[in-house]
Amino acid sequence: MFASLPSNLQVLIIYNPAAGQSSNFKNTLDRVANLWRDHGWQVQIAATTAPGDATIKAQTAAQAGYNAVIAVGGDGTVNEVMNGLVGTSTALGTLPLGTVNIWAREMGLSMDLLKAAESLAKSELTKIDVGMAGSRYFLLMAGIGFDAAVTASVSSVDKKRLGAIAYLKQAIQLAWNFRGVRLKLRIDGKRVRGKILMVVIGNSQLYGGVVKFTAHATIDDGLLDVCVIKGQGMLSAPRRLISIFARHYNRDPLVQYYQARQIEIRGKRGKSLPVQVDGDYLGQTPMSFRVVPNSLWIMVPPNADRSLWQAARG
């Protein structure tokens, strides 16, 4: 169910000064704020000062009765903000200013801040599911294995200097020596075993801006989609990617696809794999993952990918 925006929307913009590669975006943010004020919105702007600060600022805004908090930055900033909004009546919006900006792309937003702001001004409101990895919420996905190893090893300097190329560079370097790890998965109680290269637990569809590992995911079905990629090493990964691009998940014996409410991942004999959520390194397995249904209000611009909603799938 979608609802209209209140006419006198009270909005807090939270931005990450370190995000992306733009050096002059504060002036643009002021123009964004004035554009929304022309729509009758009450707009405040706050900068983050440290990791986790966006979560605290979002929580404080929700407690103060703000209608929406706009995360300006990459998907890590969006994740921090949404962690302060889950379970409240305050909606999440985003303006893209990061490395990949997956959520902004899912929402059909332009990478130009002013154009994206114009789209957000025409938004509707709705509630969606989120995922939880350990004690942290995620909006997009949790990645376990190779992608998390890449995420953990990319420096903030390289991210700012090279953007998405920093991840590709690091992936090539790690791929030669990365090996599958014997893990035990429980997916809604079903046992899955084998040498695991990577698991993607998706609340939404788009991954890395180009691939849909969890192409069947919807953000309002009370489920997480799980793509399990098995193998001895990353040299077999291109074949697995072909299966995923073609969405032939369960036709490839080394690619398995599930939908579930709860997933547990543990290593055999103390082995573990790294975990990332929404593009930020979180920790190591063992870890539990679950869906938190109907728990986050979001702003939905007109060009958002409607296949993210169950009703649009028919």
A few lines on this structure:
The protein has 314 residues and is α+β, with helices and mostly antiparallel strands. Helices cover 26% and strands 34% of the residues. The chain has helices spanning 25-38, 53-63, 75-83, 102-106, 113-120, 146-153, 156-162, 165-175, 237-245, and strands at residues 3-4, 10-15, 42-47, 68-73, 91-96, 124-133, 136-138, 141-145, 181-187, 190-202, 224-230, 255-260, 262-267, 274-277, 280-284, 287-300.
Q: Could you describe the 3D structure shown?
A:
The chain has 314 residues and is an alpha+beta fold. Helix content is 26%, strand content 34%. The protein has helices spanning 25-38, 53-63, 75-83, 102-106, 113-120, 146-153, 156-162, 165-175, 237-245; strands spanning 3-4, 10-15, 42-47, 68-73, 91-96, 124-133, 136-138, 141-145, 181-187, 190-202, 224-230, 255-260, 262-267, 274-277, 280-284, 287-300. The strands form two sheets. Strands 1, 6, 7, 8, 9, 10, 11, 12, 13, 14, 15 and 16 form a twelve-stranded antiparallel beta sheet that branches. It has a four-stranded parallel beta sheet with strand order 3-2-4-5, sandwiched between helices. Strand 4 (68-73), helix 3 and strand 5 (91-96) form a beta-alpha-beta unit. Helix 1 packs parallel to helix 5 and helix 2 crosses helix 3. The longest helix is centred in the first third of the chain and has 14 residues, at 25-38. The radius of gyration is 19 Å and the shape is globular. It starts with a strand and ends in a 14-residue tail after the last strand. The mean pLDDT is 87.
